[in-house]
Amino acid sequence: MPRPKAEERTILLDARAMSRALQRMAVEIVELAHGTDDLVLIGIQRRGVELAERIAKLIEQQEGAPALIPRGALDITLYRDDLGTVGPKPVIGETHIPGDLTDKHAVIVDDVLYTGRTVRAALDELADFSRPKRISLCVLVDRGGRELPIQADIVGKSVKTGPDDRVDVLVEELDGRDQVDVIR
Amino acid sequence: MSRPILLQGGRVIDPSRDLDELADVLIQDGKIAAVGRGLSAPDAVSIRNVKGKIVAPGLVDLHVHLREPGNEDEETVASGARAAAAGGFTAICAMPNTDPVTDNQAAVGFIVRQSGRAGLARVHPIGAVSIGQKGERLAEFGEMVGAGAVAVSDDGRPIVSSHLMRTALEYARTFDIPVADHCEDPALAAGGVMHEGLVSTRLGLKGIPAAAEEIMVARDVVLAELTGGHVHLCHMSCRGSVAIIREAKERGIRVTAEVTPHHLTLTDYACEDYDTHAKMNPPLREAADVAALRGALKEGVIDCIASDHAPHAYDEKEAAFDDAPFGVVGLETAFAVAHTELVESGIFTLPELIRRMSTDPARVFHLAEAGGGGTLAPGSVADVAVFDTTAKWSVDPAAFHSKSRNTPFTGRALTGRAVLTIVAGTIVHEL
Amino acid sequence: MTAPALGKDLTGLEHMTPEQIRLILDTAEPFKEVSERPIKKVPALRGKTIVNLFFEASTRTRISFEFAEKRLSADTVNVAATGSSVSKGETLVDTARNLEAMRIDMVVIRHPSSGAAEFLGDRIASNVINAGDGKHEHPTQALLDLLTIRDKHGKIEGLKVCLVGDVLHSRVARSNLWGLSKLGAEVAVCGPWTLMPRGIQELGVTVFGRIEEAIEWADVLNVLRLQLERMEKGFIPSLREYYRVFGVTPERLERSPKPITIMHPGPMNRGVEIDSRVADGPHSVILDQVTNGVAVRMAVLYLLAGGRAELADAAKRGGGGGGGAGGGSE
Fold first, then answer.
1. Is residue C320 pLDDT above 80, yes or no?
2. Which of A82, A150, C120, C235 is the most buried (most CB within 10 A)?
3. Average pLDDT of the residues of chain C
4. How far apart are the C-alpha atoms of C225 and C248, rounded to whole Å?
């Protein structure tokens, strides 16, 4: 498809900056949850799952916790409100909730927060599994542009973007390197 | 009586006299007055310049279904005769499976009168073989022939009882009429909706094996030999039947046969997508059958082309394949389909095609005795068709004169059509 | 990359591409998990109205579709249109027009006439899913069979699968045949010659006249239901003889060098086409088929609901058509 103009790609976070952001987010999560006893991390498919796994490992390291932080994965495809306008997603990822979340503090982890619709869907889906005592939201990048009254509790990096811009999050596990780009 | 007509400068093809030459044809008092070059025009003559056109004896169709009486919404004698005229036919033979069945002299007389009122193509009634086409008791052949029937048939249904077929063939000898049979073994064909083969297997539709036809063709041939009667085999569809007829003719058995334009051109693949306009009985068969039928028609093993024109209301065909009725209309496409597929492709010459659509069918049903047809010999009845064999057109069912639209040829590009049709000296169709 | 969209309708597997079939199977995987959730329901088809239009009696297929629809939050109406006094064809046309007038989103249709689903799909804008049409196809049954085989063997390609029994009258057999061959399995059929359709070999299928030969050859036996009326119509002399000659029994299976996976689309005639000890045996995946049926039907409903109208018929004609838009970060 021909593009109207050449796209301009700028690096928002390189690998080291991303590593520092994740370290800080791990610390903030433990502070927010008053420790790790009730903490559960839920990554949103796809890259949220990888980020949740990274953060969980960082928390385990820094806390020296004997028990692993429970983590789950959530695919919100079936909870989207725009089926029929975007066409079918070719792949629906795994959804896995680690046990009963009642009386737990669930932290939803995603790569980018934009319109808020994904988070809305994730909240709906989580509610169909159980009733956590608290749900928080943690994102690597907040790019603004909200269409719903949703706010992240923990943010790695904020950036102002327009509706035609794109934010690409690359993670080592899936993309071979850690980097966040803004494409304008 | 209408004005004399002079057809000037056409290519005159009269298979009855092996004539194929540029000539004028003068029609006077309902008869062919003269055929020759530079004919002088009598007073008040109506002159038609037919240079570049074909002047031929009007086409004859031994097998049509007009739905009058009973289903006049689908076709009437008049609308069928109008469609026939538009297709270049000057005589058509109407099968008796009307409602009520045409199985007595009053019913036969009704068709004759309706035909006369319409004043278009001649409609010759075919009487039923058995009362009510029930396959039990013989209908009154003698009275029906007296009223105008040219043949007997239970078409639409096969004559299942071999005894009935035997007596029909024997009894028909007195009146020198053929017994036309729809060859189908009902037990083998039961529930079938298309040809039994790879396509029916894929579509999950119940098939009618070729054997269902061949068995009855063989039986009819054996009974024709036994009785000395004349059996006419309707709408042959498969290569096995061709082999049986060929052998019977070689042995001098009185058997004649017809084939439809669709069986000469389409195969069971036309049923793909469950197109109910490709549902007819006998069903469309395989490419090898089409090839055998074409060869048999060329050789004369099969005597003639007949349309098996079978009108159905549009909503009857608007159904699942199993539930749709059998049959397609054909009067207005028969010549063009045959011309395009057989003549344009070089398999037949034009005179050969006209012979199989006019002279031969007229001979098979002895139509010379029933008013004429199949010849342009001076003195004979002026049933004439003029064709433009270069005219290109595509089939648009909405333009049909027939009341029904159920054709498998919708949208097909064809070459050749009747531009002038004359019955007994009167113009009944002109483009 | 373009995703292999399904088009408007699912009428059969014959004209689908292997990619389209794989898409459905892959999509079915995550739907299995939905049925294991405490609340077995996702809002994917919220607000969609689906009519289950059954012109033939059916219990398990209808229930399976209904669960699939409800677990996707669709609104469903069941219509059982059997025993109507009007002829079947008239009913179908009129039904199509009525459904169209009610602006429903999807129709799941079962009908005794082959081609009925395609007929309906050509006449209404709603998505049409074939739940069995005459002797033609039963695509969701074949898809769930494929998924079950893939679960059990980890693959489909290269497996030897034999369909046993009344192939002539079986829409399940036809759909399986297309699906299996497209995904690279070797396909055979086995049964009395009276129940074999003409020309089946031309479809690249091996025909075994004896069950012993089929058992020696196969990795998977999919045992078809034998309808009682086949005996009444004279295709086989008796059920007793059928069991003795073609029944899948432990004694016959024992002679196979390897374990054979046993499948049956149900409902089973125990002691006719299949021995109870086989149906309930360790290599039977018959109940897995039922479980997978719901997941496969959810996948089909979900994919068709997301399909775009302009792709209609592309799948039917064998073309893949373009795919859905990419997801992006959000």
1. no
2. C120
3. 87
4. 12
Give the 3-state secondary structure of residue C56.
coil
Break chain A down into helix, strand, coil percent, rounded to 5: 30, 25, 45
Residue range of the domain that includes A119: 9-183
Question: Is B18 known to be catalytic?
Answer: no
Whether pLDDT at C1 is above 80: no
Q: How much of chain C is helix, strand and coil, in % rounded to 5?
A: 40, 15, 45
pLDDT tens-digit readout, B128-156 = 999 999 999 999 999 999 999 999 999 98
Q: Is C41 on the interface with A (CB under 8 A)?
A: yes
Q: Which amino acid is present at A30?
A: V
pLDDT of residue A59 exceeding 50, the answer is yes
Q: Which amino acid is it at C164?
A: V
Q: What is the mean pLDDT of residues B72-88?
A: 97
Q: How many CB atoms within 10 Å of residue B20?
A: 17
Domain tally, chain A: 1
Q: Which positions in chain C touch A118 (Cβ < 8 Å)?
A: 330
pTM: 0.88
> Is residue A39 assigned to a domain?
yes
How distant is the Cα of C313 from the closest Cα of chain B, in angstroms?
12
Looking at the complex, does the CB of residue C325 fall below 8 Å from at least one CB of chain A? yes
Whether residue A128 and residue C72 make contact (CB cut-off 8 A), yes or no, is no
pLDDT(B20) > 80? yes
Amino acid at C88: K
Give tens-digit pLDDT for C266-317. 999 999 999 999 999 999 999 999 999 999 999 999 999 874 433 333 333 3
Mean pLDDT (whole number) for C128-145? 97
Asked if residues B330 and B409 have their Cβ atoms less than 8 Å apart, the reply is no
Per CB-CB distance under 8 Å, the chain C contacts of A77 are 44
Q: Indicate which CATH number applies to the domain containing A175.
A: 3.40.50.2020
Asked if B205 lies within 8 A of C90 by C-beta distance, the reply is no
Collapsing DSSP to helix, strand or coil, C123 comes out as: helix
- A105-113 β-sheet, strand order: A71-74, A39-44, A105-113, A134-142, A154-158
Dump pLDDT digits (tens) for B227-237: 999 999 999 99
Ramachandran category for residue B10: left, alpha or beta (phi over 0 → left; psi -120 to 50 → alpha): beta
Confidence check on the interface: ipTM exceeds 0.95, yes or no: no
* A112 inside domain: yes
C314 SS3 class: coil
Q: How do residues C193-204 score in pLDDT, each as one tens digit? A: 999 999 999 999
Phi then psi dihedrals of residue A159, to 5 deg:
-150, 140
Residue A103 lies in a domain: yes
Contact C118 B273 (CB under 8 A): yes
- Evaluate whether residue A2 is within a structural domain: no
CA distance A163 to B130: 83
- DSSP code string of B125-163: EEE-SBGGG-SSSB--HHHHHHHT--EEE-TTS----HH
Question: Is A93 near chain C, with CB under 8 Å?
Answer: yes
Query: A83 and chain C: CB distance < 8 Å anywhere?
Result: yes
Phi and psi (nearest 5°) for B243? -65, -40
